[in-house]
Design goal:
Oligomer: single chain
Distance between the termini: 32 Å
Number of domains: 1
CATH superfamily: Jelly Rolls
Number of helices: 3
Helix content: 10-25%
Length: 191
């Protein structure tokens, strides 16, 4: 596995080393030893699969606050995705940086997103499936989001979404002062 640092501090594009023969392709999607050798600490506590039937399906922006902040490894199993990550860590050198990347199953790459970042994606092909490895369990009381078309983050989406959940549509705009107060209140909490 090769770990390529991306624009947001602690975010990596992970390239696997597939083995191919007449049967097909075999590759690792996670190896704790290789992660440790790259200086990346990651413990899997939950896995999720997002199956998206239509092209231009949008999910996000989502994140969990401390003490349930979660690192994510996102691996496209089928299809193509336009992924957007926003660094929400006030102490990060890339605070409020927007990172976009296209992911597809053919490239066999994965994206590591550090805790404290919000994430969203738009599918660029029908029948696009994403596998998530999560470092933390889902905690509804620590789960937050903001609108995909929030003017503060001003994402240049490649297409207009045609399918968005009601919950994602109803998120409010990102309010920086409210967020910083919440961050300050929750960041010192222990689980």
């Amino acid at each position: 596995m090769q770990f390529n640092q991306l624009q947001i501090h602690g975010s990596y594009l992970i390239e696997s080393s597939p083995f191919a023969d007449s049967r097909g392709v075999f590759r690792r999607s996670f190896c704790m030893t290789e992660f440790q050798q790259a200086g990346v600490s990651f413990q899997i506590r939950q896995t999720n699969i997002s199956e998206n039937f239509a092209c231009n399906t949008l999910r996000g922006f989502h994140f969990q606050m401390a003490p349930f902040g979660e690192d994510k490894i996102m691996t496209p199993v089928s299809g193509r995705f336009f992924n957007v990550t926003i660094d929400l860590r006030p102490d990060s050198p890339t605070f409020l940086t927007q990172q976009t990347i296209q992911l597809n199953s053919e490239a066999r790459h994965a994206l590591l997103i550090p805790k404290g970042c919000a994430n969203a994606f738009l599918t660029l092909a029908p029948d696009s499936t994403m596998l998530y490895y999560m470092s933390e369990l889902y905690s509804p009381s620590h789960y937050y989001g903001f609108r995909w078309n929030d003017p503060l983050v001003n994402v240049d989406w490649p297409a207009q979404p045609i399918s968005i959940s009601e919950k994602d549509q109803q998120y409010a705009d990102f309010d920086l002062s409210t967020y910083l107060a919440l961050y300050s209140r929750t960041n010192g909490q222990q689980r």
